[in-house]
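In the laboratory, one determines a bound structure by crystallizing the protein with its ligand and collecting diffraction data. In a computational setting the workflow is compressed into a single prediction: the sequence and the ligand go in, and a structural description comes out. We illustrate the idea with pyridoxal-5'-phosphate.
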Amino acid sequence: MNIIPYGRQHISEEDIQAVIETLNSDFLTQGPKVAEFEKKFASYVGAEFAVALSNGTAALHLSALALGVKPGDKVLTTPITFAASANCIAYCGAEVEFVDIDPDSYLIDLKKVEARLKSVPIGTYQGIIPVDFAGRAIPMEALRKLADTYELWILEDSCHAPGGYFIDSFGENQFCGNGKFSDLAIFSFHPVKHIATGEGGMVTTNDAGLYEKLLELRTHGITRSSSKFSNSLEFAIGEHPGARSAYPGWYMEMQHLGYNYRLTDFQSALGISQLMRAEEGLKRRRTLAKRYFEAFDRSPFIISQSGYIEGHAYHLYILEVQDRIGLYDYLRENGVFAQVHYIPTHLMPFYRQKGWKEGDMPIAESYYKHCISLPMYPSMADSQQERVIELIYTYYS
Ligand SMILES: Cc1ncc(COP(=O)(O)O)c(C=O)c1O
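The predicted complex, in structure-token form:
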């Protein structure tokens, strides 16, 4: 039986050649391809700076550190996301505060965010991590207004949405991660995502200070910039002091506690090659989404579906259906590996131990009872999509 997964990477002959070329070069880890990937990715999303990292979770962790998240802080996020969106706050010893989703968009509900912020003194919450869930862009212009009123930073989890956008109040497309409204945005290059490097991640920003911090945190908190050194020149030179006025070539300082969250040069070469096909992939995802939408529009077993929305990047196409478990099992028996995104994070045992319980996020919990993600990836053939649609109709007939 030919398996149809819910998502999968697409590796072309050009991708393979790009990786081989880099493997034959002098650089295996941080070389010129990393900087090239960063520059091209920043330009793709419309941001000034980008920092490539070992995965999306590392991107979230370093972003939280760069924003100064510390024990005692409280940060808002959505329960319908991969757990890493919340975990980065826990890594820093701060508290995660979930806010329920909007039942139509499945995104964090900005009205509920506002109500929460209004109910407490300014300064209670330090930041918010909205997620462009499934590929649908958060209305970031509205969120920025809220964040400014209540003095929050914004860390946009854009793992699902490179190339996605919303339309602002001037009628302009604002691309996810362009840094116009959020302080930082993060992306993942896990195989099911739009751009795959195996493991991989990126942070984008327009803030030069945050960019510098991220670069240092990525490599152990080490700086090689002599203007930042704090130890004396004499100490650095060691046993050959004299008339030298410059720090020696080998010298560097570890000034903060950092990490090794680097992406390799050959992964970056793969990323660059994939990025060149990103628009093509996005176009295909949108075509598939339109077909799903038309196929299920007003079907009696549908409670709700993603719909066809301008700017949506369609990492996932989600249906809310009656008898989700029955459909899931039936599809699996027939070689279609649909998925569920996500089990609400606040009900993961780790977060239950912190006091979160059933009933806290009623919309997210009701969504979880019915949601199913249909196969969605650029190399999916029309015939494969037809098979998925046909199987769903057969199941409910
Ligand atoms: C919304 C979201 N945030 C964060 C991550 C973490 O990314 P990674 O798997 O690259 O660490 C993922 C990936 O699964 C994700 O879907």
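The chain is about 35% helix and 15% strand. Keep in mind that any predicted model is a hypothesis to be tested, not a measurement.
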